[in-house]
Amino acid sequence: xxxxxxxxxxxxxxxxxxxxxxxxxxxxxxxxxxxxxxxxxxxxxxxxxxxxxxxxxxxxxxxxxxxxxxxxxxxxxxxxxxxxxxxxxxxxxxxxxxxxxxxxxxxxxxxxxxxxxxxxxxxxxxxxxxxxxxxxxxxxxxxxxxxxxxxxxxxxxxxxxxxxxxxxxxxxxxxxxxxxxxxxxxxxxxxxxxxxxxxxxxxxxxxxxxxxxxxxxxxxxxxxxxxxxxxxxxxxxxxxxxxxxxxxxxxxxxxxxxxxxxxxxxxxxxxxxxxxxxxxxxxxxxxx
Length: 288
Fold this sequence. Notes:
With 288 residues, the protein is an alpha+beta fold. Helix 1 (3-14) packs antiparallel against helix 2. The chain has helices spanning 3-14, 20-33, 66-72, 155-158, 196-202, 220-231; strands at residues 52-55, 62-63, 84-87, 93-95, 110-112, 117-119, 126-130, 135-139, 143-146, 151-154, 185-187, 193-195, 243-248, 254-258, 274-280.
């Protein structure tokens, strides 16, 4: 209803043979009914494919998941306090569950009423609640909880994992916490921790810890390849007397060795995970 239509309606009300109080009430109702409806768009969720939005108890706003909430608000959500959701198909607001009370669709393959979590089980990464961790873990493997580490590990590696409280921290790739993550965690040789998925992606292009630069796995076969490459490429004669002061990231030893443009081998551990601290230049003497 536009402004001219509203004025016309008000004029009609004023002509009615009723009391001024009744006229005021009708005009009030008219103006309130014609107020524009403000539609707040729920941000598209890039984290999950669930068919419902959560209604945050802290602020009353609707989001696709807790991550969407935290990215758009100035406070973090208490996911466990969530009591209501909205169906994305029919927009019905309802109590937390995995089935819409109106259109009867299931919001996702997996639902945990303890964690207020919906998850698509893609046939590989299956979600399961751990009562000891008090959250859901997602893994393609069967998980076993370690009471000493207070974390879950794949059953096939449980007997060989090293118990350490270092698992509880932030992933050195994504910087997010490891304990309350649905993904499993991996303790690196250097005692830093990564999410399993972050490690798998990181190893495609790197072999050293991003924090301390220690090799992430046994690389003797790779060192053999580099040694062969170094020995098959002779340095120019003018560099024959040059030395370099190196530090080995794996064994933490310093040494002075013959300088090479690319491959500087640690004489202690026979690895090439080294960095140059200083180049000692010695000019060749002219022999006449």
